[in-house]
Amino acid sequence: MIATPDRTPLTREFFNRPVLEVAPDLLGRVLVRTTPDGPIELRLTEVEAYDGENDPGSHAYRGRTARNEVMYGPPGHVYVYFTYGMWHCMNLVCGPEGRASAVLLRAGEVIVGAELARKRRISARNDKELAKGPARLTMALGVDRALDGADACAAPDSPFATLTGTPVAPDQVRSGPRTGVAGDGGIHPWRYWIGNDPTVSPYRAHTPRRRRT
DNA sequence: CAGTCGATTCACT
DNA sequence: GTGAATCGACTGA
């Protein structure tokens, strides 16, 4: 007899905690994405915390702007931004409201809807690569700016329902410096991942762009 | 208003 | 391992 997985959606209160507490607690949780073609479910294996205006790596470091507005709003909402002229990255806003903290979803394992995800991830060589990296993750899920500000706690009406699933055992959680974050933002070990999980993306230090001639 | 660069990915050597 | 792709947000003058 197989145990019934817990499908209770995470509540607003779950996200209304300090981001350093929420981030590791998201590992192992399952994100459900509802699309017209069917559901995609992603088990989160890698995340990063960004903590407000005092965090040099955060989009909120230089204060409130049109782009980061959602980070200042209530927890449990989705912050999506566009970067490198072609990619989207997705965050979950944490508490308390006004602190502008959020968790970047960096990687996960597609456990339902791999067929749909493969169509959006043509260059993926295998299923472990479907959501191995923050921009790959949004591609696999079909997430873009249209979802910026969406409520992730409004299941089942929301395009998302973040489920409890089974949080990964604490002794499986690893942490280290955040990937690709420039300067002083690299000092905080606020990247969290599941040890030995094959869907976790490789660490890369920030690489300054070569100057154009 | 022009210059700079990004919480990245992919193709190629 | 290296470099290109590609554009909007942000910065500072």
Explained architecture:
- This protein has 213 residues and is of the alpha+beta class.
- It has a single domain (12-188), classed as Roll (3-methyladenine DNA Glycosylase, Chain A), CATH 3.10.300.
- Helix content is 12%, strand content 27%.
- It contains 4 helices and 8 strands.
- Strands 1, 2, 3, 4, 5, 6, 7 and 8 form an 8-stranded antiparallel sheet that branches.
- The chain is globular, with a radius of gyration of 16 Å.
- The model has no long low-confidence stretch (mean pLDDT 94).
- The chain binds a DNA duplex (13 and 13 nucleotides) through strand 3, strand 4 and helix 4.
CATH superfamily: Methylpurine-DNA glycosylase (MPG)
CATH topology: 3-methyladenine DNA Glycosylase, Chain A
What's the helical proportion of residues?
A: 10-25%
Strand content: 25-35%
Total number of strands:
8
Average predicted local confidence, pLDDT: 94
Order of SSEs, N→C? HHEEEEEHHEEE
Return the CATH class: Alpha Beta
Look at the helices and sheets and give the structural class.
alpha+beta
Radius of gyration (CA) equals 16 Å
Q: Figure out the total of helices.
A: 4
Shape: globular
Determine the N-to-C terminus distance: 65 Å
> What CATH architecture label applies?
Roll
Indicate the multimeric state.
Answer: single chain
Low-confidence stretches: none
How would you describe this structure in keywords?
single chain, 213 residues, alpha+beta, DNA-binding
